[in-house]
Amino acid sequence: MHKSMINLTINGDEVDAVVKDNLTLLDFLRDQLGLTGTKKGCEEGECGACTVLLDGLPVNSCCTLAVECNGREVTTIEGLARNGQLTPLQRQFIDKWALQCGYCTPGMIMSATALLNTNHHPTELEIREAIEGNLCRCTGYAKIVEAIQAAAAEMNWEEA
Amino acid sequence: MHKDCAKTYFKKPEFYRLTGENNYVRIDAEDKVTGHGQYVGDIMFPDMLTGRMVRAPFAPARILSIDTSEAEKLPGVKCILTPKDFEWKHKVGNGEFAAEFADKEVLCTEIVRQVGDDICAVAAIDEETAQRAVDLIKVEYEKLPGVYDPFEAMEEGAPEVNWEGKGLHNIGMQSHMCAGTDIDEEFNNASYIQHRDYSTHRMVHAAMEPHGAVATYRNGTYNIWMSTQMAYVDQFWYAKCLGVPENHVRVIKPLVGGGFGGKLDSYSFGLCAAKMAELTQRPVRMILTREEVFQTTRNRHPIYMHIDTAFAENGKMLAKKCYHVLDGGPYGGSGVAACAQATLWANFPYKLNSVDFLARRVYTNNPAAGAMRGYTACQVHFAHDLNMQYAADQMGIDPVEFRKISAADPGYVAPAGLHITSCAYKETLDTAAKEIGWYERKDKMKDGEGIGFAGTGFVSGTGFAVLEAPNQSSACVQVRLNKRGMCTLYIGSHDIGQGSDTVMTAIVAEELGLPMDMVKTFMSDTFLTPWDSGSYGSRVTFLAGNAARRAAVDAKRQLFETIAPIWGVMPETLECLEGKVISKEKAELQMPIGDAMFKYMTIHGGDELVGVGSYYHRTDNSQYNGENTTNYAPAYSFSTGAAHLTVDKETGVLDIDEFVFAHDCGRALNRRAVEGQLEGSIGMGLGYAVYEHNITKEGKILNPNFRDYRFPTALDMPKMRTFYDFTPDEEGPLGAKEAGEGSAAPVAPAIANAVNMATGVYFTSLPLDPEHIWRAMNGMEDDRHSK
User: Fold this and answer.
1) Less crowded by CB within 10 Å, the N or C end of chain B?
2) Residue B284 to residues B53, B213, B402, B566: CA-CA distances in angstroms?
3) What are the residues whose beta carbons fall under 8 Å from the beta carbon of B367, sequence distance 6 or more?
4) Domain containing residue B49: CATH number
5) DSSP secondary-structure letter at B140?
6) Is some CB atom of chain B closer than 8 A to the CB atom of A101?
7) Position B637 in a domain
8) Partners of residue B38 in chain A, C-beta under 8 Å
9) In this structure, how many other beta carbons lie within 10 angstroms of the beta carbon of residue B563?
């Protein structure tokens, strides 16, 4: 398998790596960089557990090749908290009990982060549409939606 | 302290400060929102190998030859296991008492019984090499005639699926529950009798985390990190199958990304990972693909149910007979208990004079079925509640009132030996009816509109301990207090996502009057934590929670017996509250727990304080090997689900406007945790009722992925409201009963009853997808369920 040299930004840090051309971004993050917060649920782009932000937009990292990310910016769940401070969304997931087994949680938070980055006043329907590609088998989604709503309200309050 | 201890030192409700509200968060929440939490696939060792299984492409078949020579030559392949590596050892089963009936080979030596059966295993330097090696292993098969319908499997001359030559007609397990008054007389005296048939389909757990194991072999010990619901049972079977004593097998449960019953069985892939770690002297990681999870783990039994019911003129249910046939697939494992439970649920949640329930779990060549959230309660309650609804309609009685006429009451003892303790079933019915607006709406329903109810009951703390245990205990817990008053908690119970680690921590913190962060919890490691039989049968909160409470109380008692003489008071007059030991009688007597512990250790020569607690529920196991009239559990939970929906009669599409859920879980130990369980139950129940269906052809699942096997997304969920403030259970830990498993049962029948009302068609099978509804409304037969 042909290999390529890539240079990209991951969670704010510049990374140089040699990767096989068929290596997925998911396996690159998990196996090569040890960033195991991004989860592997189906490896075919159906469950959303592997969602990361690529140049700010949510993508399934299992369906994205590492070589495609050359020169681009990747944010994973490990990159959200800064200086030991969780984001409002992460805190609301904790406070609202918006997780159970937690396996979908990183992907769910990444999709919701992408939503809140561009839409500060999402409706419930917009929230549900934003996380539609993130399957959760435990919660029935109610507490997840509530946590995202609470985070949006908190961020609006901080803006004001 | 054990179950029958004096309860002198149990904290009284007026001193509860932590449980019952939302005063604490999950102890694993921060790890889970930051991505730091470690699931089995996240465990890394520098020299770790990747494992893969070679699986049968069809079944049944006879293995004629296995040729691994090409694979062995592939650079990077470090180990190949063939059936020879396990053939002289034990098969895998479930309960220890029936270990001789274990029926699954680790690797198939001669006969392949289901598609995806384990044939060989490979360990290589990376996934790609391992998969190439799998592809290079040549297995020659001779196809054999298979049987894919449980009724055909029971016929004379049908191909034998397992236990060949034993003359079982593929009946792997049979349970008969027969009790009460003369049933023929009850039917003779009845004023209304009905005979109904129902069937359910195959569904999978679809936990978001695929099954997996990581194994090392060091100092003569197999260390296996396992995505499991019962590490101790895995330890038992792994030791047997690896041919070593249990003290050479350490099973550790890391975070588990959902189980729902699918991680109860001891699977071959974990055993192969362990064996290959031994042979290569390197760590081996084996994570199943999603397709493997669908095809080769377990699924929910399809069940065919015939029900005869006798009612008195006033609508009181008098007696019931039923015959349940479970499609078990070729193996027993966790599915064995499903058969007995399929008779148990037929009792609930009603009073009956007489019962005659027969269940057969039949071997077929379909994918093996096992435990799944409710352990057949979802199937049985679907059929038996629709049966109630049909009777209510035939007798012209309001469906809520009709269910109340026969509803179980607190203290009821069923003919089958079941002792109901707390029971708020009638209250759940009333709550659901009021909240869904039944009485205002029922006479004004529009065309295509429907409201449906379903009432169910479930065990809270099943007694069956799977492995033989002293005093039939199924949970033991230890706490240790140090000189600062910090508590270390050792629990064997298995948090698979439901939050039981947090609940155990909260129970201990409550009893010891400590904040949550003063209790450090260690869990589910067979070399470190005390025995616990696992997460199944809604046993964790009730049994392990009661054990945790007793461990904390045992520590408290010892502390009080040391401090009381210093203060010149009786130890029973002390309590732990808000970080202090206090006197309940003299307000001036109080001391921080850290100081009290320092004193305790000073007086006791430096000994830290250790408290031990255990809990059991004694059954006679007759559900598996005898009369089947035993009290399965120390308590029972009760639920009513209510759905309001409309059906588009042109397309058959459902629009579920609202789902109301009333669940009697005793006293909730955390409100949001209980709500999360109930809401999740609605999600899974909705999937069962409307979306999810494993389609198989000759035992092969044709939709083994989330594109073709669709379960509800955030956009599919209805508005949900949950109600759960009913009576605390006297024996439950701090008043609690189960909230996460029985709650899955009423969802599908409530939706089905609402669809019945909306369409005027009495559906008798699932799922109620648009095509199924449309066909039924247009008078076409349901051709999906062969019999």
Assistant:
1) C
2) 13, 8, 58, 57
3) B114, B115, B116, B202, B295, B296, B298, B299, B329, B694, B696, B699, B701
4) 3.90.1170.50
5) E
6) yes
7) yes
8) 36
9) 22
The shortest CB-CB distance from B32 to any of A42, A99, A141 is to A99
| Same-domain check for residues B91 and B235 | yes
Could you tell me if A115 and A151 lie in one domain? Answer: yes
Interface ipTM: 0.98
Range of the domain at A67: 3-78
Would you say residue B176 lies in a domain? Answer: no
Does residue B609 register a pLDDT over 70?
Answer: yes
What pLDDT does B723 receive?
98
Nearest to A77 among B35, B207, B712 (CB): B35
Residues paired with B701 in a beta bridge? B696
Looking at the structure of chain B, the number of domains it has is 3
Average pLDDT value for residue range A125-132? 98
Q: Hey, are the CB atoms on B706 and A135 less than 8 Å from each other?
A: yes
8 Å CB contact of A102 and B31? yes
Check whether residue A65 and residue A92 sit in a common domain: no
Write the pLDDT tens digit of every residue in B376-395: 999 999 999 999 999 999 99
Are B527 and B423 found together in one domain?
no
Both A67 and A103 in one domain: the answer is no
Contacts of A39 in chain B (CB under 8 A): 39, 41, 208-209, 257
Q: Read off the pLDDT of residues B70-93 as tens digits, 9 standing for 90 and up.
A: 999 999 999 999 999 997 778 998
At residue B424, the pLDDT reads 98
CB-CB: which of B680, B682, B715 is closest to A129?
Answer: B715
**pTM, whole model, 2 decimals?**
0.97
B230: nearest Cα among B200, B208, B253: B253
Same domain, B428 and B328: yes
Tell me which residue range forms the domain holding B516: 13-37+465-616
Q: Is B453 in contact with B432 (CB distance < 8 Å)?
A: yes
Tell whether A100 and A151 lie within a shared domain. yes
Number of domains in chain A: 2
Q: What is the pLDDT of residue B388?
A: 98
Cβ contact A137–B683 (<8 Å):
yes
Q: Is residue B203 part of a domain?
A: no
**What is the distance of C-alpha A145 from the center of its chain?**
16
Residue A160 in this model has a pLDDT that exceeds 70: no
Inspect the interface and report whether the beta carbons of A103 and B497 lie closer than 8 Å. Answer: yes
Over residues B194-220, the mean pLDDT reads: 98
Beta bridge partners of B154: none
* Cβ neighbours of A44 in B, within 8 Å: 290, 705-707
Q: Are residues A113 and A54 in the same domain?
A: no
A58 pLDDT exceeds 50?
yes
Query: Does residue A83 sit within a domain?
Result: no
Q: What is the CATH number of the domain that holds B499?
A: 3.30.365.10
B26 with A136: Cβ contact below 8 A: no
Q: Is A43 on the interface with B (CB under 8 A)?
A: yes
